[in-house]
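Morning. Coffee machine broken again, so started the prediction first thing and wrote up yesterday's gels while waiting. Chain of 507 residues, entered below exactly as on the submission form.
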Amino acid sequence: CKRKALLTAAKGRAERVKAVFDGAGDEESAKPWACGRCTLENAWMLEECSACGTRRGFFPKVSVVTMDPQEKASRTAQWTSSCQILINYDLPRSLSEYLRRLTAIDTVESFNPRFPRVVYTFLEEPQLKNRSAKDLVELLKTMQRYVPAAKKAEIDSALGLIDTTEEDEDWEEEEEDDEDWDDDDWEQCDCAHCRGSILGSTSYHPLLEIPDFKHKDMSGIEVVRLPLKALEDFDKAVPFIAPRVSGHSCTLICLHCLNVHTPWDGWEQFFAPSELTGTMRVVLVLAEGVSWHEYPDCALLGAGGSAWVDVLDMDSMDRSDMLLERLVDHEAALLNGHSERIVLMGMSQGGGQSMLRFLRSKIQLGGWIGSVCHVPTAPHTPRSRDPLLVSSRPTVNRSRPMRLLAGESDCVFAPSLVLSDAARLRDVGGFTDVQVEVRPGLAHEGWLPDAPKTKGITRSNSFKDADTALRRAKSFAKAEKACPDLLFVQRHLPSMVDFSTPAPETC
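Came back before lunch.
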């Protein structure tokens, strides 16, 4: 009987497959299905997810526990430690009740970035003044003393949302400082590029000296500053950003962080790696209003972010991405179509915006480099707008290098969030060369005061020009403190662009 049943099932499966190929089957059966665990869309014929191995039709088990407010905690029902996600729809009545609920979290593979264990607690603003909320704040502050720096950054992010002990004093100080400001002042950038209302500008910077080596006469870095708004009528801006030196080796398109147009001003020489002997082109794009996109959740942004999600506005990101696509096509044309010599780079908010262009690019690029940022995909975007799940998405760059510098003490984009996003890039996106470096002592705004010191400056007897070597070492030590992301670019750019081959002629 068992053998007969297996034969009947095999025949039925074969008939369904034949019906679909003949066009006589149900259209729904031929559609791709989404994995209930990692959200990857799989081909209709697959019975297991190609990313995480979850069987088709799987949906995580959901347990709902209701509690009587008058019932004592000791009499509430117990449950086994099997949850990956715990949602406290109401704030627990006491600290002991909160800790008791935490026992429901499964600790197996708790540090696996693909399936992190997360606790969500819903609070209303009046509840922040309650005793239970204050006890929770004290618990988190106590935990900070005994956890690693990465976990401490997550706790800092949570405290930014619920800790109100210093909120009143800070608010009074901000009100005093805001009296001299107009509403227009908050929306305007006072950098030299905005004050001049430029359509575009170009500056030239020589390469840093290398001991026992002499650069070519016309070697250096051509830095272009281009407002994003100028790309709306790009033909007017093109003459202002035309290359002044022909034959540049590559183009690095850089997107700044939120609220700062000039994070790299004065450090332009450090964009170039030591392998560069000719010229390279660096395009610094300046976002309108010093922001690449809007934020649907302003309260979350104002509190410093969350350790598990960054809610993104895809409509405004799409508008910026459309303009950036024009710029990438223009720079590819200047390189005579050698788009593989274009590298995208971004910092913080600019890192996510630049990665979106990299994920959507239909032409091959050299790679992507980012610092203190995350991946603009689910859960930060609606699933229907996730660039990794869009049908017929470009795959030309799935084997290209992607490098991300994360701060171990970053409480805006905590390392756990960044590592989880990177794992999803590999599993769902199919990107094969993704690397994340978590730097100790690095926070979102820069180095912590007690960050580990870099190695001291040493003289090398192998260099004939010892003074040049010493000056170079001192300048690099200063750059490491001021802009570690540029030295990160220096280290990884040679793996994306071949500087040993002749540069293409500029169109």
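The first strand starts at residue 33 and ends at 34. Going to sketch it on the whiteboard this afternoon.
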